[in-house]
Amino acid sequence: MSSSKKFPRPEVLILSLIAKPNAPTELGVSYNWAEAYIHHGYKVTFITHLSQKVHFEDYAASDHFELHFLGTGSSLPANPSSLWQAARLLWTSIGWQISVRKWVRHADRKFHLVHHPSISSVRLPSPLFILEGFNFWGPLGGGHLGNLSRLTLKNFAYESIRNFSILVFKKIARIAIGPRTRMNLTTLATNSPTLQLLEGIGFAKVIFELSDGIAPPRMSRKSADKLMTASDPVKIIWAGRIVESKRPRVAILALSNLLSRNLNAELHFFGNGQQEPLVGLAKDLGVQKQIIFHGAVSPNYLMDCLPEYDVSLFTSGRDSSSPFLLESLYAGLRCIAIRTEVIKSIFPEDIVSGPSEENFDENTLAEFISMEIEKWIVSEKESRVSVVTKGREFAERQTWVEKAKRILEIREGQGQEL
């Protein structure tokens, strides 16, 4: 895409309250967008909160990248876990946005587009007003209500508060986000429930776009010959924070089912969290020797070792999306997930298969998953290659460079430079 020929002043403004370059979570999203716009020949002016300066010590300004820190120096909770933290984040966001507006007015510059990546959740601080030009917010997830069935008291309370916050957002958004902003802000939704929520609130321009992306130059993938055969034992990988809402028990139960059918397999957990209950479950089932806990590892290490595995499991019941699934698809793994309403709206079933969330009993979910894995193990080589090839092609459409290209094309369709 030759952007410099189409646009006389190719400059993008990115506004991100919280940002951390190359972080594996939502914290790294804003900088990924910046790199992608720069790839397309645009200069990026990047504004974040002053407290984020510590994350940018190794990133100097250049002809393509202009960096500004605004606001006070107090730290910010990236993922507020209490009402007090959420209120503090919202209050800080309001003050920071006012500072941004003053800066833009003083700078007196025209931008080709203004992108507010936020931190990928519709429930966290949003643009309260838009700046002159073409404004994009998102991509956003988190607009779906979590399933409260069969949770422990602690997790039931957490998920209830989360669901309540979505309902509160729906009620107050029309007041907090003015009609001009809702009519002119192009909002990007990462799944169907969030898209429907935003349209219901009154956002006039809502577009489907995944919040996650991949950067192929930093990733590894299986060679063609490794796509043809499964390992012995079959190596299954599960990655993420080990908490109840992500249902890691289901993965262990599925492994137990496979072993009981004399299928040689092992399960690898990557991530920190509540490991002790899983160890106890594995011992009760007699499968502890086939489970390896690796703990937290760097994103680069995880991506480098992905091609060593055969199957990627995603058992979460509430996540809006999953960069790990995209990375697994790109690496050439067979991906199996609990197909929640969110997962169904993102990933076609022929590339990410699995049981529907309605089958919530963990033993039923585990049985479905083990059957999917067994089906893949015994499938013909050609069929196996076809599935992973489709998955890889899907992931390749979600590179940050391709995602930025889509935003620029949407912007081009909306009009010429102001």
Characterization of the model:
Helix content is 42%, strand content 15%. It has 418 residues and is an alpha/beta fold. The chain folds into two domains: 3-213 and 399-414, Glycogen Phosphorylase B (Rossmann fold, 3-Layer(aba) Sandwich), CATH 3.40.50.2000; 216-396, 3-Layer(aba) Sandwich (Rossmann fold). The strands form two sheets. The chain has a seven-stranded parallel sheet with strand order 3-2-1-4-5-6-7, sandwiched between helices. It has a six-stranded parallel sheet with strand order 10-9-8-11-12-13, sandwiched between helices. Helix 2 packs across helix 15 (400-414). The radius of gyration is 22 Å and the shape is globular. The model is unreliable at 1-8 (pLDDT under 50).
Strand percent estimate: 5-15%
By DSSP (H or I, 4+ residues per run), the number of helices equals: 15
CATH architectural category of the largest domain: 3-Layer(aba) Sandwich
Strand-and-helix sequence, N→C? HEHEEHEEHHEHEHEHEHEHEHEHEHHH
